[in-house]
Amino acid sequence: MNRRTLLARLGVLGGAAAMYDAMSALGLIAPVQAYSGPPRISSLQQRKSVAILGGGIAGLCCAYELTKAGYDCTLLEARERVGGRNFTARRGQKLLEYDSTQVCDFDEEPDLYFNCGPARIPGHHLALLGYCKELGIPLEVFVNDNRMALLHSRAAFDGKPQRQGRVLNDSRGYIAEMLSKALDQSALEQAVTDQDRELLQAFVGRFGDLSKDGRYLGTARNPYAHGGFLEEGSIQAPLALDDILKSDFWQFKMHFAEMADQATTMMQPTGGMDQIPRAFERRIKTKILYNAPVRSIMNRTDHVQVVYTDPKDGSDRALQADYVINNVPFHLLLGIDNNFSTEYRAALAAVPAGKLFKIGLQARRRFWETDDHIYGGITWTDSPITQIWYPSTNFHGKKGVLLGAYTFSDEDGARFGRMAPQERIRTALSQAEKIHPGISGEIETGVSVAWHKVPHMFGCAANWTPSSREQYFDLLAAPQGRVYLVGDQITHHTGWQEGAIRSAHRAIEQLHARAAAEV
Q: Which pLDDT score is estimated for 258?
């Protein structure tokens, strides 16, 4: 009996779990390792020095863990703050781009802030959540999925926004109706038994809330057209199937909240996402030099020499360290003098940075709650602003800060980036008027961030392609001499703080194993 036959019979007898266990035992599937916390590294007999370049989340994590283990760490940060793209704008905060400076003039209230970069934490991002607990960072629920929020398509429903729940329920109803009809066809006679057919009919009927004769006529899962409290509710007529198909909701927006990184329960730090780098900063027992951009990185046989700009007088200073943790973005490393290999530099150049763009808008009243009955969540549109987020805190408060645009495509991000800050807000509001008529009169002030124009960043998450990953990922994930690259950029989870932390843990383990061998 060959392995294929054996596995097939095990599957029949014991199900998928038995087959999976057998394949693991035969070495055909690598076992999935559960996350077990930060690296457990012991102190070295001989103290080693580490220069950490960049105070993003990965750099901060490395400084925190290595300092605890007794390493002599120096963190060089090019800006006046740590956190990288983890940046929260509040009253008085400056938002710098290479051709403009904005000053946030939100009211000075605890809930009036704008997370310019990361803004939510999925429940399965265990490393980040573990640090939130360890560092004492209070968390609260982030409302990511709200079926009362809206879906807007310029190509469907006469351009009128629709409740997400209605589009989702009606879509599933039509799918169930089509499946119900298919179950009546003779093509299934040989595939399922009569008992199976009855159960499947009942299943799809419940799934899509079909009538007894298998038709989709609307559903009470949507809010009633009227009634439902003191009088019998009247079911809304379903949206037209051709309108649903004309819109782009079915491509990924319909199942957005089913994705692992977007599923409930999502969380956020109380008071803004920058509570995370601030907590690391308070707990790191090491030297942090701010406004100290790196000028060169030179691998030597037994050390690395880093030259940086002294923040006190602008002169070049040299720092010698046994190892370097490099949290600088790929594309910026190419502008720093180095002696990396030609292949390594080619790999850095092969992965460009994205051009995500966001706008934060302070509203004089929470009209989305009072007028539209939306409490948290995200509205989608096929206009360039792409998304509108509603705050998850201070429900029924007086004012609130909306995320007025969150673009995903580089084209949309570049388009907004070419505009002056006030023009960006006017453009975003003109698009939002199609969703919330009168919104322009509700907004008091706003700020925006085009990450590809932010000094010392000039981009967002690394834009890997399948071919670039195959060719370059392993090379960049391995140390280049005594230099270890970290950040979400060198993970399969780009754009998330969890990726940054996992990359830090990998680098810490690699570096410590080498340091222990060299002692």
A: 87
- Give the CATH number of the domain where residue 173 resides: 1.20.1440.240
Residue 279 lies in a domain: yes
Range(s) of the domain holding residue 401: 88-149+264-273+354-453
What is the 3 state secondary structure string of 345-413? HHHHHCCCECCCEEEEEEECCCHHHHCCCCCCEEEEECCCCCEEEECCCCCCCCCEEEEEEEECCHHHH
DSSP state at residue 32: P
Strand 337-338 and strand 400-407: the pairing is: unpaired
> Which residue in the block uniquely carries the two structure tokens 């939130």?
132
Express the helix, strand and coil content of the chain in percent, nearest 5 each: 35, 20, 45
Residues 502 and 431 in one domain: no
Return all residues near 300 (Cβ < 8 A) that are at least 6 apart.
482
Percent of the chain with pLDDT over 90: 77
Helix (H) or strand (E) holding 59: helix 57-68
pLDDT per residue as tens digits for the range 218-230: 999 988 888 888 8
Question: Rounded CA gap, 519 and 509, in Å?
Answer: 16
Q: Which amino acid, residue 191?
A: A
- Is the peptide bond prior to 342 cis by the omega test (within 30 degrees of 0)? no
